[in-house]
Each structure stands twice: as structure tokens, then as C-alpha cells.
Design goal:
A hairpin with a 7-residue loop joins β5 and β6. Strands 1, 2, 3, 4, 5, 6, 7, 8, 9, 10 and 11 form an eleven-stranded antiparallel beta sheet that branches. This protein has helices spanning 25-44, 48-55, 136-139, 156-166, 194-207, and strands at 7-12, 57-68, 79-90, 95-104, 107-121, 129-131, 168-178, 227-232, 241-251, 254-263, 269-277. By secondary structure, the chain is an alpha+beta fold. The protein has two domains: 7-146, Thiol Ester Dehydrase, Chain A (Roll); 156-277, Roll (Thiol Ester Dehydrase, Chain A), CATH 3.10.129.10.
Length: 278
């Protein structure tokens, strides 16, 4: 039986990684991305930058899930470990799926799954890209067990339908925001981990709004999130304008926030859908 090729790194706990409620989702995604970069260097012998410069391909995030398994308190541990457990090449070699686990004192406290679409680069200074497949020179470096021919079943649209059908809508809100450079990655488009901060900001604005006063929603500000699920469908680039819409549902006694982000500079294209479950 072939062992999975993994990478692990241990980090010190510091105050910036936590809110008073839980471990920052944005930090978890940052460590997950770093694990992916490390995995490529260790097991495939290529950095992300070399993928671009030598193989004319890159990766863009199309989805992820964060599942908080148990509460981890800032004062509980001094260190934590981030492990990229396994990697799968999916969908006719056009998509990569990464499975991450975070542990402290040997116990799991978060699991993260990230999905990245392969894009072929045109080679101009703007890094123009089109959907593609893993180039053969890199594909042959994966183990057979890491190549999964089964199609990827999108779960988030089903969750959205369930929420909108079975849930009770309490309140909604929207606002516009410009994407600034501190929210961008190297291609001057939004860094996907910033979505967790964008929707958290929107959640708090809606909870604190006048329209939610009649509902017992203020308790949410002190509750830890149990799960975050997101899909990205359109990029947002530097200084483009976004419209963020948030809908607050009660689904079987559980508060659920459904967020949709639109790119107003691209004919109001749906850029991302995010679900926060408490």
C-alpha cells in the first residue's frame, strides 16, 4: 500500500492567529497555501513560480471548505502543526484537490480542503490565462494513487438550494466595496483567503444593523463558526468594484449566513458564493 506524500510544519501560536472566539479562518487558508507550495517543491521538485516561468501553467482557487472539529483556545497550546495530508489530480487532470489537517498536542482541531483549477498561461506580462490541464512534464511526477479519474461533485450548490428551501430567512443586507491591493495576490487579483474577512465584515454589519434588532442575533458575534464553504467563479482585480449580498437563515436551529459577491465591473458576474454555518 502506497503511503500518501505529505508535508508538515509546526508553528508557534501567536495572538494574531486568533479572534476572542476562534482561530482565524484567513490564517488557516494562508498556512494551507504555504503547505501546497512546500509540497510541490518537496515532492515534484518545482516551485509555484517555476510552474509559471518554466511550464507556462498556474493554479487558481475554485473552492474550499473549512471544518472546525473542536474549539482551540489561544491559551491552550504553544504550538500547532499544519499538515497537507494528500493531493489528488481530478477532472481529466484539470483540477487539483488538497486535503489539510491542523493539529495541536496531537489532536485535530480543523480540516481544510482546497480545490485549484489548472490554467495555461499565454505568456504576456499580464499573465493572461485560460482553462487547461496539468502539463505532461509535471503530470508524470505524480504517483498513480494521486491521479483520480472520478468527476468532482459540487456540493455547495446543493447546500445553497437546501438553505433557501428549508431555511427561514430572517434578515438580509448588501453593500459595495472596492478591491484594494492589500487584498490581492501576485497577479493583482483578490487573494481567495481574503474572502473570509470580507464575509465576516458583512456578517457583522448585518447582525449589528437596525433590521436585525428584533431577532436574537447578537449572540452570533460571540459564537464560533462550525464550517465555511466557498466557491469562486469569477476573478476580481485591483480597484474593481464588488457588491456583497448577505442572507441570514435559521436552518434546523442553526444560524447560516449565505453570502454572494458580484463583480460590478464585469456585468455583475457572480464572483463567489460563501456559506458560514454556526
Amino acid at each position: 500500500m502506497n503511503a500518501e506524500r505529505s508535508v508538515s510544519s509546526t508553528y508557534a501560536v501567536d495572538p494574531t492567529l486568533f479572534t476572542p472566539v476562534q482561530f482565524h479562518a484567513r490564517a488557516l487558508l494562508g498556512y494551507s497555501v504555504n503547505g501546497i507550495c512546500t509540497w510541490f517543491i518537496k515532492h515534484l521538485g518545482v516551485s509555484i513560480a517555476q510552474q509559471v516561468s518554466e511550464h507556462c501553467q498556474s493554479m487558481v482557487v475554485v473552492g474550499c471548505e473549512i471544518n472546525y472539529i473542536r474549539h482551540l483556545d489561544f491559551f491552550e497550546v504553544g504550538e500547532f502543526t499544519a499538515t497537507l495530508e494528500k493531493v489528488r489530480v481530478r477532472q481529466s487532470n484539470s483540477l487539483l484537490e488538497f486535503f489539510h489537517v491542523f493539529t495541536a498536542n496531537g489532536d485535530e482541531f480543523v480540516r481544510v480542503v482546497t480545490r485549484w483549477k489548472i490554467v495555461r498561461l499565454e505568456g504576456d506580462a499580464a499573465l493572461s490565462a485560460a482553462s487547461g490541464n496539468m502539463c505532461e512534464s509535471l503530470l508524470k511526477r505524480f504517483k498513480r494513487a494521486e491521479l483520480d479519474p472520478l468527476p468532482l461533485h459540487r456540493i455547495l450548490p446543493l447546500k445553497v438550494a437546501e438553505i433557501e428551501t428549508a431555511g427561514q430567512l430572517y434578515v438580509q443586507g448588501s453593500y459595495s466595496q472596492t478591491l484594494h491591493r492589500h487584498q490581492c495576490e501576485v497577479a493583482d487579483q483578490w487573494a481567495f483567503l481574503e474572502l473570509t474577512a470580507l464575509v465576516a465584515q458583512m456578517r457583522e454589519r448585518v447582525v449589528m444593523s437596525a433590521s436585525s434588532v428584533e431577532y436574537p442575533m447578537s449572540e452570533i458575534l460571540g459564537m464560533p463558526i462550525q464550517q465555511i464553504a466557498m466557491e469562486l467563479s469569477c476573478p476580481v482585480f485591483l480597484f474593481e468594484e464588488m457588491l456583497l449580498e448577505t442572507y441570514v437563515y435559521l436552518v434546523e436551529a442553526q444560524w447560516v449566513f449565505l453570502h454572494r459577491i458580484y463583480n460590478l465591473d464585469r456585468a455583475k458576474a457572480l464572483a463567489a458564493t460563501v456559506i458560514e454555518s454556526f
